[in-house]
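Format notes (please read before filing issues)

Several people have asked whether sequences and structure tokens are stored in separate files. They are not. Every record keeps both together, in the order shown below: the sequence lines, then the token lines. Line labels are part of the format and must not be stripped during preprocessing.
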Amino acid sequence: MKTPIRFLVTGGALTLIVLTSAAFLLPDPQGTGLSVGEDIPFYSLPWNDNPFFPGEIRTADGKMLNSQNILAAEFCAQCHEKEYREWVSSIHSVTGPDILYETAIRNNELAHKNRLGKEKTRWCDACHEPVNLLMGEINPLAVVGPSQAATEGTTCVICHTAEGTDPLAGNGALTLDINDLNRYNEALIMAAPGEHARSMQAKTHNPLMGSSDFCGACHTEIRPSEINGGQPMHLQNTYEEWRDSDYADKNIQCQDCHMHPDPAAYISELNQTGRIPERIVSHRFVGVNYLLTDSNLPSNLVTFLRGGLPPGDIATDEWKAELLEQNRLIRGLLQAAADLSISAPESVSPNSEGALSVTISNSGAGHSLPTGALDQRHIWLEVKATDAAGKVVYHSGWFDEKTGQIDPAAVIYLKILNDVAGERIYEHILFNVADYTYTRDPIPAKASDTVDYAFPIPPAVQGPLTVDATLWYRLALQELVTYSLKLDIVLPPVMMEQAHVEIPIR
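Then the structure lines:
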């Protein structure tokens, strides 16, 4: 078993001398990358000589990874235990293994089974399973060996070897200097920790690590015409939404919020004081996936959804506690993203029409609300009016907790995908999308959207009339859970914001 790096420190000055000597005796950094054909035979290149296309990820030397040399997060955890424990509860740690993604990939691959379906998934895996893609595993024939790092989604060395990005290209458009084996040499790390920090792209050495341009490489999604269609199709624009916002003008980067130990607190301080809070880094990467962090789900469901237990020696109970903390932060972030207000008349009369408006303000998100994969992620309004006797006078936007269905007449913010026959695509089969429309446009950062409501007031209504408005968020459509995952569960929503008003009856 490999000796943990931390144990090497105990030898004091003698150890330091030995390690320093080793640093001078070791050969100059050498690339360990492999070449298609010569080192990796039978690798399919249907479009061009770029082995990662239609993904946009690159290696600095143009070569593929050696599956025997790529290091897993468990190696890094020997010295960076705090960062490891934060990362292992994040969605970044399971961007590939999670069952939602694996199911979507299988559906897309099968949809184009006889049309290079496997090779087309390189477009998706450039962000979701970069290690697998870089070492050549995304291929009709299994031509590479297994690797522990390949099971970890976006693992440490993916981000920490990036030296360039093209955020407007998206689809994993990072250039990684990842094939330098000496970068991971234990003797060199101990002998020259400063050099290790530089080579592993600490933010102080590489400003890219603290820039939204870095995040934009994966939070921009453009389907190339090689997959389908005559023109590239823009499917996610989170980076551009940020770039066009007031946040970008103020030099507030994605990392400032999403890598803060408590993003909701960051937003609160920013909105209340107008000053940019101190930049503090956590590797939790807090986002919106409350499902894959809810370890209170029954029968170890969260373990199944995340593709199994985490790597490393973290105890299961400790890991589940970390997940619950991540879940708390996610819900806090969702609830800090928006404000809700109701504009209502001073009074209404029986046997008349009631009219009011509800305004959603995107007060806390540095991008549009909602954002991301909007054929799945969605928000909607629930408005309920009740009289003094408890009788429901009006109810729009209800949610059926038994079936997971939303009121068809609800005001919902959702992208509707259609195939070439005009049939709606419910299960995130992006390879087949011919066109899309929005039920209602996403709300840009610092903008608002007002929705008008009108409903009849009964003759025998008893006042006052109580109106409650709720803004709900849900991670995915129930159809994805029921028909793709084949799980007999209802995907619950998360309450983002509520507003309340009483209207007298005159």
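For reference, the curators noted about this record: The chain has three domains: 5-209, 238-336, 339-503. Confidence is low (pLDDT under 50) at residues 1-28.
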